[in-house]
UniProtKB/TrEMBL annotation:
The keyword Transferase applies. This is GNAT family N-acetyltransferase. PANTHER family: AMINOALKYLPHOSPHONATE N-ACETYLTRANSFERASE-RELATED, AMINOALKYLPHOSPHONATE N-ACETYLTRANSFERASE-RELATED-RELATED. The keyword S-adenosyl-L-methionine does not apply. Keywords: Acyltransferase, Transferase. The lineage of its organism: Bacteria, Pseudomonadati, Pseudomonadota, Alphaproteobacteria, Rhodospirillales.
């Protein structure tokens, strides 16, 4: 039987919550954005338009087109129709989901010929924080991790721009610089951006790019090239997760490229295990 597909309204929130909770490790962006803004379709951070497939009253797949132009998929066999429904009439900056979901959505959106800046296959990793392996440098105080503050913003904006160039195909422009600035300002304001310091000197950073009371998702991990090879990335992630664990968070999620072997080794050393696959597709003309 063909699934019923439609846009979601406020009264659908309980069904959506139940579906996302059942797929929590894969649903961090969806769950966290929903927790921030509810089923509000708008232009402010975390707001989006949600489409779902139903079997009776139960949701069996979902896609959301968010304020930033990204379509996030937890859609299974319904990826094509759900992406088309959620993004109808709107510019799509990128697609995130399982590899098969992203491929189906790209075809449904007639985007196969759009140039891309990133087409990455990723591993999805999970860590119950009770099993976090803290690096010795943190344990003995050689380095320390803290939430970022407003005075850190110029440095962090530069780091985020460098991250976007290296990881997301960004090029030098005022718009790219402004985008990096906006992202770190939001993360600092939310208390989700962290800095690793050697003495008073910041040497690495990371953030929670999705946050819930029970689970956080690590992103924006960056060490300047001249400071790499010293375990700073592993230490900043561990320090951020210690902070989350002290506040009652029980699980962490992250994803990293299949070809990023150094990052994989660092995360496995912290206790993360791979639980699945992920795909990120960023279109070169993200701004529309």
């Amino acid at each position: 039987m063909t699934a019923a597909v439609r846009l979601l309204a406020a009264e659908d929130r309980p069904a959506l919550d139940a579906f996302l909770q059942a797929h929590a490790p894969r649903a961090m962006f969806l769950r966290a954005n929903l927790a921030h803004s509810g089923l509000v379709d708008g232009v402010h951070p975390y707001q989006g338009r949600y489409a779902a497939a139903f079997a009776g009253d139960a949701i069996t797949g979902v896609a959301a087109h968010y304020w930033n132009g990204f379509v996030i998929l937890l859609a299974g066999d319904h990826a094509a129709v759900l992406a088309a429904t959620a993004a109808a009439g709107r510019h799509v900056a990128g697609l995130i989901g399982l590899p098969a979901e992203v491929a189906a959505a790209r075809a449904a959106l007639a985007a196969r010929d759009r140039p891309v800046s990133v087409d990455s296959r990723e591993g999805l990793y999970r860590l119950p924080l009770a099993g976090l392996q803290v690096p010795p440098a943190l344990l003995d105080g050689r380095v320390h991790c803290r939430p970022a503050a407003v005075p850190d913003l110029p440095l962090l904006a530069g780091w985020r721009f460098d991250f976007d160039v290296a990881m997301n195909g960004a090029t030098e422009s005022a718009a790219a610089r402004a985008h990096a600035q906006e992202m770190v300002e939001r993360w600092v304001a939310e208390g989700s951006q962290f800095v690793l310091c050697d003495g008073n000197r910041p040497v690495a950073g990371c953030c929670f790019n999705a946050t819930l009371p029970d689970m956080v998702q690590i992103g924006n991990v960056w060490t300047p090239p001249e400071l790499r090879g010293r375990g700073h990335a592993r230490a900043v992630v561990a320090g951020a997760l210690q902070y989350a664990r002290h506040r009652g968070v029980t699980d962490a999620i992250l994803f990293t490229g299949d070809d990023n072997h150094a990052a994989q080794q660092a995360y496995v050393a912290l206790g993360f295990t791979r639980i699945g696959d992920y795909a990120i597709l960023l279109f070169a003309d993200q701004g529309g």
